[in-house]
Amino acid sequence: MNAESAAEPDYGGITPDRLLHTGGHDGVTPEDLVLASGRDLTPENIEWAKRRLAAKGRAAIEEQLP
Q: Residue 37 contacts by C-beta under 8 Å, 6 or more apart in sequence?
């Protein structure tokens, strides 16, 4: 254990609110859409995501998330 990790409190596996974010202010990448859909990051899936984002915009990822 180094000094840097000792300075971080242990949250018992729970992510603190200050580290959570929705990404609503960032653009959605094809990689984001691939991962949200549960697919592997392959060239074919990234191309699928690019086409889907071009057609649907941000709604493409919102359809994947609960």
A: 45, 49, 64
Going from the C-alpha of 34 to that of each of 1, 4, 11, 62, the distances in angstroms are: 35, 33, 30, 12
* Single-letter code of the amino acid located at 56: K
Residue pair 45/34 in contact (Cβ under 8 Å)? The answer is yes
pLDDT per residue as tens digits for the range 15-25: 777 766 555 66
Task: Give the tens place of pLDDT for each residue, 25-53.
Answer: 668 899 989 998 999 999 999 999 999 99
